[in-house]
Each structure stands twice: as structure tokens, then as C-alpha cells.
Write a structure and sequence with these properties.
Blueprint (H helix, E strand, L loop, with lengths): L8 H23 L19 H13 L8 H17 L10 H8 L16 H12 L3 H5 L5 E2 L2 E2 L3 H6 L25 E4 L3 E3 L2 H8 L13 E5 L9 E8 L7 E14 L3 H18 L12 E10 L8 E10 L2 E10 L4 H18 L9 H10 L1
Antiparallel strand pairs: 1-2, 3-10, 4-10, 5-6, 6-7, 7-8, 8-9, 9-10
Helix pairs in contact: 1-10, 2-3, 3-5, 4-5, 8-11
Length: about 375
Amino acid sequence: MSRTPRPTRAALALASAVGGITTWAAGRALRSSPVRLARMAGVSIAAPDAAGWITDFCNAAYYARARKERTLDDLRLALAVVTTRWHRLGHRRLRAWDVAAFHQAFGRARLDAYRSERGTLDHGQLLEGAERLLGDWFPEAYADDTRRAWGIAFETAAERDAYDPGVRLAHARLGPLTPPSTSSPEQVWHTYPPVAMPGVDQVAAAVTRPETWPDYASELGRFTPVRPGGLDGQTFEIEVVGQPTTRTPVWLRAYVTVTRLVTASDPEGLAAYVTELNDGLARFARDEPPAVPDGATPAAAFDLTTHEGHFMGAARNRLVLYEQDGQAYLRAAGTWDPLDWGLAQVYDRFGYYAQHAFWGMQSPEESMLHQIAEQVGT
């Protein structure tokens, strides 16, 4: 048996946090709502009995490969193969027996130790298997920005235009919005380090097209829009992947909705948004810098408000795009209600690192903001 690489620190942290959160939530679910735990586990396009083979497929494409051989393009490709398969099957949830088609398409390649480590798949093997599974049109369609959207490759542009992202909501169990409800001084106020961007106009144009957000997936998770239309009022399904060991992954999902969007087309509204946010941080945060520094010019900002069952509880995260001294930056700033004791213990020990990594504090491979910068800049 070939040696498997050790999991990353962020992956261990996230998986531990997810495991602790799930255990804690299970107890709460038994005492309160039985659907709470269901909303925190799995992904909407697959039934629980499919989780094992889907994660094994993602392991083969990315997580089980040596760090120097990994590329996020391969992880995104693997996720697109799975999501495209779901789409081609008429949007029914993937089940355990769907592994047979994947094994037929990719199984032999995973035994080819001459091209990649045994049990894994390189980029070429992923594309070749996708052709066998989905059709010879897939590689070209996946590479075509006009036929790739919502994490799906479409055979034609007409098929893409006809797609309704709302079909994912059929199994989403979307709960009500849960913005912070305690008074501002009681809430946690926090900013993350800004991430340099290629340009405000480029980034604003990209992030306001929610169908492209799956292209910014990091190794810790991805955002997939589940409503038609643009960014304002859009709801995202967040798929988070933990990796305590190569063969024992943990999947978690949550939902957020854009409840407020302001852009440079509304300079007064944008200025008021930034003033309100910076004032809140100055008054209620502990030693936190302003979200938009003095002298910087804001370009866009929006709120991501949690839905019931989100692993951060009642929370609102904000993304702010601004320019300072000729350099564009994208920064996250969040507020949330104090966590229950059990969840707070897990967050302090494990979740803090993973949360910061996703929003830009650690390596580019872990951060969605870094991936926005890389993808928009290419």
C-alpha cells in the first residue's frame, strides 16, 4: 500500500471543529429540533449514502495527493464532474449506486501508477474519465467560460442559459435568516487581513456574477449560488470539507444570503455602509483595525447573513472591496452573537484557525479570497 500524505494543519483544525460542532449539535437536536443536525451535514446534490464515494473521488483528485502534486484546478475539476453528473441525471440526488458509473470511468486510471500515485488521478486522467462518464464534449465545455457556470459544465451555451440554479433548493432544507440578534456591544466584531486584488473594476465585475463563485473554491470549501439572478439577494450553499485523515473526511454545508449590496454606482450608500461598519468596529471590537482604512476608496460591499443551522450561529459576514495607494484589496469582516458554551469551546480550540484561513489569513490554497485574486488576475 502506498504511503499517504499527512493532512494539513488547517484541514485537521477544520475537521476537528466540524466533528465537535456536529457532536454538540446532535445533542441540541435531540433536545430541540430534529432537523437542525440534518441541515448541518452533507451536500444538497447527494444523499448521505453517496458521501463516501464522492469524497473518495475528491481525495483521488486532490486531498490524497502529495502536496507538491496538488493543484486546486484538479479539485475544482473533480467537483465539476460530480456536479455535472448530477445535472445530467435530471437533478436527482446522487446515491450510493452511482459509484458504479464513476468506477467504470475512473477506476482503471487509479491503478495506473506510471502516471500518478496509485489510487490518485492527475489532471489528464480526470479529463479522460470525464469524457467516458459524460461525453467527449466535456473537456472543451469545462474550459469554456461561456459554458461553465454554477460549478457545472454545459454541453451548449443554450443549455447553460436554460439552467435554473434554484433546483438545488429542492433538497436544501433552507431555514430562516439568522442575523445577529443581541445588542451590538454583546456581539463579536472581527476583521480579517485584507487580500491584495488585481483591480477593483475586475474584481467587482467578477464577484457580482455569482455563477462564477464555484471557480474560486479553496481546499477548505466553495460557495455555490442557488437562486437565479445576480448577487443582490443571492443565496449560497457553502460546502465545507474537513480532512482528519485521508480516508475519513467530514462534509458540512450551510447557507448564507446577500442581504445588502452597495456599489460605486451608489456612492452615498457605499460611504454610509463603510462609515457604519468602521464605527461599529471602533466602538465594539477589541483591538480590531477598520475594515476600510483611512484614505482608502471603497468600491463595493455586501452582507452575507446566515440561515438557521449555520455553524457560526446567528452571524453576518461582510466583504468589502476597496483601493488604497493604487492597490485593490478585498477584506472580510464579521459579527456574530456569542456562541453557546460548547460551540465556543470548539471554536476557540479549532475553528478559529480554519475560519481565518478561509478568509485569507493563511495559505492561498486555503483561502477563497486568495483564489478570487488568482482567478480574476489570470
